[in-house]
Amino acid sequence: SPASQDVTASQDVAGSSRSLAVSRMRAAVAASQATAKFSNLGQSIARAFGTDENSSVAKRRGSSGILEASLRPRHRKGAAIAEIAFDSGTSQYCLISDIAKPEDLFEAVLLPEWGLQEPKLLLSIMGGAGKMKLCAEKFDIDGFSKGLVEAATRTCAWVITGGTASGVMDIVGKAMKEHDKQRQVPCIGITPFGGLTTKWRAALDSAYDAQEASDFILPKVDAATARRDEGEKPETDGKIPLAAIQENHSHFIICDNGQVGSKAFGSEISFRASFEDHVTLETKDSSGQSQVPRVMILVNGGKISLHSLVKAIETGCPLVVCQGTGRIADVICSILQSLRDADLPMCPTTSE
Fold first, then answer.
1. How many whole angstroms separate alpha carbon 29 and alpha carbon 153?
2. Whole-angstrom Cα distance, residue 201 to residue 42?
3. pLDDT category, 80, cuts 50, 70, 90?
4. What percentage of the chain has pLDDT greater than the value 90?
């Protein structure tokens, strides 16, 4: 099926020289487990949010004494790092500014506190959310799900999505639940805080507000408090549904730009692009070459996905488009097919 062909192409894509279109994706490299316990929480939060006098953030104080803590949302006072307790297990999350610096997040949270090992491949999943409708005759969801997790496990990859319980993000989360029961694969949702439902925002705020900057405790949010009541209609902003957190992701980076409602959707895209660039471009071998290739996989998708694709392509990120999933994905496939039929080059040359 088109889905299984796309997913099994990961090895060839990872070894390619940043080509725009890829035909095969296969998994390689041995599996490893990328989970670990939290340790030295207070010290690392202090480094991240500028309350440690010896931290690089604290050393960037202005003459007024105000801390320039890149991770702290502009309208909030303290650190935000906690857990979400779902029926299926516990996930870690941090609530940060939409203009946070990825290097600060890595130094303070992802590596020392979440215990994530640096990946050998980054699989960035983009696509449709609330408007996505897939035809089972055109796209094998089960094959895609199984192939994605197998590829991620065998290549020691991180999987990045938008983290909400809709569209392709929900498919990926459920794939992790079904095919990665030991949570070997870090599945990280990068989510806009303002795009979440009122109940979810209140739940995350309850932990945030309970954690004073000097107390360094690890609050836990009960996901049950954010669920819709039986018979309750989905919350919308106009005609656009607001989002819930997808429970099968292992980690969440929740970006807050101060906006609430549908206008917040897409506010996380700039940070996500910077985050993925940091993973792929800042991790280098002795010769200076990037050690972490990135592959973007498109399933369906709309305006926000197209914006992300353009950013990724500009950095040379190869793209896997799942044909038969509709909308932007099928438009791209149609254009590529037209180029083939007209015997035109798939990618521009340096002279064009």
1. 9
2. 24
3. confident
4. 59
Record the tokens describing residue 20, joined without a space: 């725009």
Bridge partners of residue 196, in order along the sequence? 243
Mean pLDDT along residues 258-271: 96
Sign of CA dihedral 339, 340, 341, 342: positive
What is the reported pLDDT for 68? 38
Q: pLDDT class for 59, splitting at 50, 70, 90?
A: very low
DSSP symbol at 59: G
* Residues 6 or more apart whose Cβ sits within 8 Å of residue 3: 139, 140, 141, 143, 144, 147, 322, 324
Contacts of 263 (CB under 8 A, 6+ apart): 194, 237
Sort residue 150 into left (φ over 0), alpha (ψ -120 to 50) or beta: alpha
CA separation for the pair 8, 144 (Å, rounded): 9
Provide the phi-psi class of 266: left if phi over 0, else alpha when psi is between -120 and 50, else beta. left
Are β-strands 187-192 and 251-256 bridged in parallel, bridged antiparallel, or unpaired? parallel
pTM reported for the whole predicted model: 0.78
| Number of residues in the chain | 352
How confident is the prediction for the chain on average, in pLDDT?
79
How far is it, in rounded angstroms, from Cα 175 to Cα 179? 6
Number of neighbouring beta carbons within 10 Å of residue 170: 18
129, 169 Cβ separation under 8 angstroms? yes
β-strand pairing of 89-97 with 81-86: antiparallel
For residue 159, the cross-strand partners are: 123, 187
R_g of the chain, CA atoms, integer Å: 20
Which amino acid appears at position 200 of this protein? W
H-assigned helices in 195-302: 198-210, 269-282
10 Å CB burial of residue 143 (0-12, 13-18, 19+) is middle
CB contact set of 331 (below 8 Å; sequence gap of 6+): none
